[in-house]
Amino acid sequence: MKAAVFYGPGDIRIEDKDKPKPSPGEILIKIKNCAVCGTDVRIYSYGQANVKPPHIIGHEIAGVISEVGEGVESYREGERVTVVTCVGCGVCDFCLDGRVNLCKKLKAIGYYYSGGFAEYMIVPREAVQEGNILPLPEDLPFDEATLAEPLSCCINGQEYLNIDMGDTVVVIGAGPIGCMHVELAKVSGATKIILADISSQRLKLAQRIKADIYVNSQEEDLVKRVLEETKGEGADVVITACPSPQAQQQALEMIRSRGRISFFGGLPHDRSKVTLDTNIIHYKEISIYGAFASHHLQYKKAIELLSSGRIEGKKFITHHFPLDQLAEAIQKVKKGEALKAVVIME
């Protein structure tokens, strides 16, 4: 089979490898599409502690079950599927509660286990046992199905926020994650959605999502604009969908009393200590939430939203690439020239 193997920062090689054979308890998936995530960009650019080269990355996966290992039940060859990224220990409180993404012994497809930038991928026994293989509706195209993973992460972030009819929502960061947050806020009934970014190119790509207001915060004071749009009250919800300490600080300056903030985008380790005015949190009764990855039920919600058309996956996908152009696809995403790039295996 053909596979893209990560050897280190800036070094991905297309190689011919033996087609894997599933051991007892495992499942072999024929990958149809695998989308490029911002994390893939970071791994390719800088490496990552939980990715040990040489390694096949990629975790936004859609494909077909090719072969079922001995002892596996409830799955059949030819079934259209996606794979939940997070694989937990299965026995801790968080795993038993269904929140496998918070397991302290978390392992993940495309990080610890081999991922989807290959023609075939083994789903490990632990993931099969935990039900990480989820069926896809026949009417959901494979490229759009790859969006279930990032969309499920956004669902995880917004479950804390309780966005409701009439809310004003500000999303800082106009990449694919920010755009998904815009679409989810629409589904929840938000009346006014403001999307901000420092890149005019990103904002131009994001026009296909149709937020109510676009703000280039490199050219305009975002806090001032949000206060103007809300008659001085501030936004009900602010989501920082970018790795920016300044965005986290600004979120507190533009939130209304009893507002909700999601620090959705993680920060670089060397910039993760941020000075915040906690008196704003205290006197305005602000709630601030974190969000990391997602779990099975959120994947299922994402698949339902995509297959029903409530969220149109095709709006997010701007580029398709063959596997041997994976490095080019990653560079397109890194430069902000693609909203969502999907790699096609055939």
Could you describe the largest sheet, including whether it forms a barrel? 7 strands, mixed
CATH topology of the largest domain: Quinone Oxidoreductase, Chain A, domain 1
CATH homolog superfamily of the largest domain? Medium-chain alcohol dehydrogenases, catalytic domain
Quaternary organisation: single chain
Q: According to CATH, what is the class of the largest domain?
A: Alpha Beta
Q: What letter string, H or E per element, gives the SSE order?
A: EEEHEEEHEEHEHHEHEHEHEHEHEHEHE
The N- to C-terminal Cα distance equals 12 Å
Helix- and strand-based class? alpha/beta
**So what's the overall shape?**
globular
Please count the helical segments. 12
What is the domain tally? 2
Q: What value does the average pLDDT take?
A: 97
The whole-angstrom Rg is 20 Å
- Helix amount, in percent? 25-40%
Uncertain runs: none
- Bin the strand percentage: 25-35%
Count the strands? 17
CATH architecture identity of the largest domain: Alpha-Beta Complex
Description:
The mean pLDDT is 97. 29% of the residues lie in helices and 26% in strands. The longest helix has 13 residues, at 176-188. Helix 1 packs across helix 12 and helix 5 (148-159) packs across helix 6. The protein has 2 domains: 2-151 and 294-344, Medium-chain alcohol dehydrogenases, catalytic domain (Quinone Oxidoreductase, Chain A, domain 1), CATH 3.90.180.10; 161-290, NAD(P)-binding Rossmann-like Domain (Rossmann fold), CATH 3.40.50.720. The chain is of the alpha/beta class and 346 residues long.
